[in-house]
Write a structure and sequence with these properties.
The protein has 122 residues and is an alpha/beta fold. Helix content is 41%, strand content 19%. It is globular, with a radius of gyration of 13 Å. InterPro entries: Bact_response_regulator, CheY-like_superfamily, Sig_transdc_resp-reg_receiver.
Amino acid sequence: MAKTILIVDDSASLRQVVNIALASAGYEVIEAVDGVDALTKLDGRKIHLIISDVNMPNMDGITLVKEIKQKADYKFTPIIMLTTESQDDMKAQGQAAGARAWVVKPFQPAQMLAAVSKLIAP
């Protein structure tokens, strides 16, 4: 059975690029437009990995990571931040919140897939 990945980003075009890369590598993909939408998708189904932007309306990525870590079903789900933010203090905030990896946009799909496969095998 394919592993399921939740993509959280307010950019439809970015979600599409990530979705195509992940789907072609054999992953099942669920999309959310922001942190609030992402939390509605965490409804008990098995999610193997979450890829989230940092800067989004309604709920930013760091807050989302903290919220996810409060949920028993998703506490140990690995999270990759995919963002334009490259400052060390933002990375530190992300790591402190529980993010496992940090990929800076613009990114190469292969680079993102390498980060994904380190955290979960397809």
